């Protein structure tokens, strides 16, 4: 069995970023640019008024100015202001040639077509946005590797970009194994359990803004599992299997993966929950065999699958680590790393009850995983510890 750190190293050494695709701007939110984006035009493309008011030539500041004409936003008029004149102007409108300064309408008296300026702070070029002051044609707008936030999308639209080259979302399939699984909403027959792993995985992916391509449900039959895994691999960049990775007579995931040409990278980690976690690769495609217990599935997703997703997408998808202190004494199993469901109040972390891997009841109220690693077994109140914050 390998350690948590070794398992994470194996993942980082075996996952490559997905091939870039070109997408319409609005489909690229949250994705990472795979090329630099340059501006092709000056923005603003014309000297632009930043206020509703009057445009004039600063050299005329001391003169009595005659108001003549009007420039609204969107005006294509190319009139030129002559000396001694001011023009009514609105925010976003082109400042006409001959004018270089705009005074806010709150700081003037405009009577009988004559403008009297009452603004002692006014300077040459006040309230005029120069051509290219947001960005100039040919300048770098956003470098390769930028995450496209809402503001980045708006910025690119604002410089006229309509498409971008980005690292796409991976195509993710979930493959559930187990004859005992029953869909929630149906009555449970004796021996059945409600299928919950596809729900927690789909929701965890949703919180990372990643869609699920398809959920397959397979009975514990090696031929059917192999054929279904093959189909899922053909369609996907990442396959998440749940259940069937342990040593039972009905645990067929490892042999199905081998038959599909998946190279085993690791199986079994010195940890709880999720000891029999499997990770394999087929070319650039990834396969995780998540141990079926509901708490093992979601813990392994957060601790390992997010690492792989971060490498496939170049997005910061891993859980955020925080150093804190324990709110009470706790123990962990000898020789295993323990990811405990816990609650962090901003000052201390409280390990919760129900740490067994078949239970989700305290996980449902946890907001972090408490990482108890290495050989130490007993921890005391106020001991320093690391936690991983769970996304909502
Ligand atoms: N002899 C041994 N037995 C087990 C070992 C071991 O080392 N030696 N390891 C145990 C550990 S630890 C884990 S974790 C589990 C993992 O087993 P599998 O991955 O093979 O999972 P299953 O046996 O298929 O299922 C385990 C458990 O989870 C329930 N389950 C499965 N899928 C779902 C689902 N979609 N929704 C809800 N619940 C699900 C399933 O009914 C079982 O109760 O192996 C231990 N055994
Ligand atoms: O690894 Mo298993 O999750 O301890 O039950």
UniProtKB/TrEMBL annotation:
Keywords: Magnesium, Metal-binding, Molybdenum, Molybdenum cofactor biosynthesis, Transferase. This is Molybdopterin molybdenumtransferase. InterPro entries: MoaB/Mog-like_dom_sf, MoaB/Mog_dom, MoeA-like, MoeA_C_domain_IV, MoeA_C_domain_IV_sf, MoeA_linker/N, MoeA_linker/N_sf. Catalyzes the insertion of molybdate into adenylated molybdopterin with the concomitant release of AMP. Residues 173-311 form the MoaB/Mog domain. GO terms for cellular component: cytosol. It catalyses: adenylyl-molybdopterin + molybdate = Mo-molybdopterin + AMP + H(+). Its EC number is 2.10.1.1. GO terms for biological process: Mo-molybdopterin cofactor biosynthetic process. Its cofactor is Mg(2+). Belongs to the MoeA family. The lineage of its organism: Bacteria, Pseudomonadati, Bacteroidota, Chitinophagia, Chitinophagales. Pathway: Cofactor biosynthesis; molybdopterin biosynthesis. GO terms for molecular function: metal ion binding; molybdopterin molybdotransferase activity. Signal peptide: none annotated.
């Amino acid at each position: 069995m390998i350690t948590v750190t070794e398992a994470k190293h194996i993942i980082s050494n075996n996952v490559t970023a997905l091939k870039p695709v070109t997408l319409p701007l609005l489909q690229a939110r949250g994705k990472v640019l795979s090329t630099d984006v340059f501006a092709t035009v000056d923005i603003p493309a014309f000297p632009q008024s930043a206020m509703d008011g009057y445009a004039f030539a600063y050299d005329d500041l001391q003169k009595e100015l005659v108001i003549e004409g009007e420039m609204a936003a969107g005006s294509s008029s190319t009139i030129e202001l002559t000396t001694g004149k001011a023009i009514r102007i609105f925010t976003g409108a082109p400042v006409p040639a001959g004018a270089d300064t705009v005074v806010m309408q709150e700081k003037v008296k405009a009577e009988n077509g004559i403008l009297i300026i009452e603004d002692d702070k006014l300077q040459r070029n006040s309230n005029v946005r120069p051509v290219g002051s947001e960005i100039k044609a040919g300048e770098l707008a956003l470098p390769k590797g930028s995450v496209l936030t809402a503001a980045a999308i708006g910025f690119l639209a604002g410089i006229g970009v309509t498409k971008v080259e980005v690292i796409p979302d991976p195509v993710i399939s979930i493959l559930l194994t187990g004859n005992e699984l029953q869909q929630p909403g149906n009555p449970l027959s004796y021996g059945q359990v409600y299928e919950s792993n596809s729900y927690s995985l789909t929701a965890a992916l949703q919180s990372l803004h990643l869609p699920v391509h398809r959920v397959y449900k397979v009975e514990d039959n090696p031929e059917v599992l192999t054929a279904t895994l093959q189909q899922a691999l053909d369609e996907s960049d990442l396959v998440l299997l749940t259940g069937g990775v342990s040593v039972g007579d009905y645990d067929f995931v490892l042999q199905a993966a081998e038959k599909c040409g998946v190279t085993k990278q690791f199986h079994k980690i010195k940890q709880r929950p999720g000891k029999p976690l499997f990770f394999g690769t087929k070319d650039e495609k990834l396969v995780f065999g998540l141990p079926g217990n509901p708490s093992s599935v979601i813990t392994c997703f957060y601790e390992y699958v997010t690492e792989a997703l971060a490498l496939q997408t170049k997005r910061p998808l891993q859980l955020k680590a925080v150093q804190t202190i324990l709110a009470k004494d706790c123990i962990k199993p000898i020789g295993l790393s323990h990811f405990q469901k816990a609650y962090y109040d901003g000052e201390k972390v409280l390990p919760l009850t129900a740490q067994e891997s078949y239970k989700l009841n305290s996980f449902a109220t946890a907001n972090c995983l408490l990482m108890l690693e290495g050989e130490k077994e007993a921890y005391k109140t106020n001991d320093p510890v690391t936690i991983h914050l769970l996304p909502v």
